[in-house]
Amino acid sequence: MSKELDKMMSQAYEYCEDGNFSEALKLYDLALKQDPKNINVIIDKGVTLQNLGRIKQAIKYYDKALSIDPKNINALVNKGASLHTIENYFDAISCYDSALKIDKKCAMALAYKGLSLGELGNLPDALKHFKKALSIDHDYDLANISKEMVQELLKSIKQQKAKTR
């Protein structure tokens, strides 16, 4: 990566950190003019679009990244997260499964898959995925909070069933 491109990416990252996504997008567009197949720029632009709530556009960028590198875990997990956002849980799970075929210890893919499974009502499997993510990354807040939430839900479901007997 050229120094100029590197500088643009750093500035775009700063803009994103400050919540100035539209300025970041301008820089990503400039960077892509210089290097249209730069997978990191493509994914970062997708993430920025996702942060703006422009989910379908974000997915197009993740697909573009995956057309260059079908085994890019970042693109797969981010695409899955976008699909999850628009409640397309089965396709989201498919993305996470693809990422897990490449790296079965990808804690983020495991936790995100757990979230999608939970949305589909499959709480026991969701719980398994959160626990597996935590066995890889003990400090993963998303997995930890989600695991506790699912455990509480399962407990209250059990209590409801016990009351109706």
From TrEMBL:
SUPFAM superfamilies: TPR-like (SSF48452). It comes from the Archaea. It holds the Pfam family TPR_19. The keyword Flavoprotein does not apply. InterPro entries: TPR-like_helical_dom_sf, TPR_rpt, Ycf3/AcsC/BcsC/TPR_MFPF. TPR repeats lie at residues 5-38, 39-72, 107-140. The keyword Repeat applies. Keywords: Repeat, TPR repeat. Transmembrane segments: none annotated. This is TPR repeat-containing protein. It comes from Nitrosarchaeum koreense MY1. The lineage of its organism: Archaea, Nitrososphaerota, Nitrososphaeria, Nitrosopumilales, Nitrosopumilaceae.
